[in-house]
Amino acid sequence: MIMIRQERPADVSAREALLDLSFGQCRFDKTSERLREGRLPAEGLAFVAVDGGRIVGTVRLWQVSSGPGRTALLLGPLAVLPDRRNRGVGAALMRRALRDARRLGHRAVMLVGDASYYSRFGFDAANTGLLWLPGPYEPDRLLALELVPEALAGARGLVAATGRLAPKPELGAMLARLRASNGIPRAA
After folding, report:
1. 126-152 average pLDDT score
2. Is a pLDDT exceeding 90 seen at residue 187?
3. Per-residue pLDDT, 183
4. Domain range enclosing 118
5. Which CATH number does the domain housing residue 56 bear?
6. φ, ψ dihedrals at 15, nearest 5°
7. Residue 161's CB: how many other CB atoms inside 10 A?
8. Could you tell me the pLDDT band of residue 168, with boundaries at 50, 70 and 90?
9. What's the mean pLDDT when you consider all of the chain?
10. Which residues of 30-68 are buried (b: 16+ CB within 10 A; e: fewer)?
11. Is residue 188 part of a domain?
12. What is the number of structural domains in the chain?
């Protein structure tokens, strides 16, 4: 039975493997990745689908602005293992993410994706025509869902990352671990 729960630190490697399998290395080239890199997901809005102890799906939401002075979330990426697709896992992840975003008081969610899939959750491009992303994208794929009516009314401008910064790795500790595990010699 599939369970949707908050992502845990121990889930990171399985989540990354799932994203690599689903999108390949080109996922790091996507414009929406520019809004995620160096940031943490919005508090309480990173989820995994688990089946028998195995991570089979993932979705995360990120804090962004939807133009100057307007807050929103950016959803993505949403991914499901190939052998679990077309079984409602992605839909269950979406419903949980949107429900919790609404419960936490967020006003709008945006994403870059196929309207044919995301329209069933209420996403469309009606409120994104005057917004743009920091890099190449197809404007008709920039979709939004207002969790609060009129949250995106009049939204215009650059969508920008606003979320919490991810901690920077402590390089000295990383080098010490590498030296200990691989026998890397110390500098003379």
Report:
1. 97
2. no
3. 61
4. 2-182
5. 3.40.630.30
6. -65, -45
7. 17
8. confident
9. 94
10. bbbebbbeebebbeebbbbbbbeeebbbbbbbbbbbbbe
11. no
12. 1
Residues 159, 139 contacting (CB under 8 angstroms): no
Whether residue 45 lies inside any domain: the answer is yes
Answer yes or no: is 187 within a domain: no
pTM for this model (two decimals): 0.88
pLDDT at 188 over 60: no
- Three-state secondary structure readout of the chain: CEEEEECCHHHHHHHHHHHHHHHCHHHHHCHHHHHHCCECCCCCCEEEEEECCEEEEEEEEEEEEECCCCEEEEECCCEECHHHCCCCHHHHHHHHHHHHHHHCCCCEEEEECCHHHHHHHCCECCCCCCEECCCCCCHHHEEEEECCCCCCCCCCEEEEECCCECCCCCHHHHHHHHHHHHCCCCCC
Residue 58 counted as domain residue:
yes
CA count, 13 A, side-chain hemisphere, 160? 8
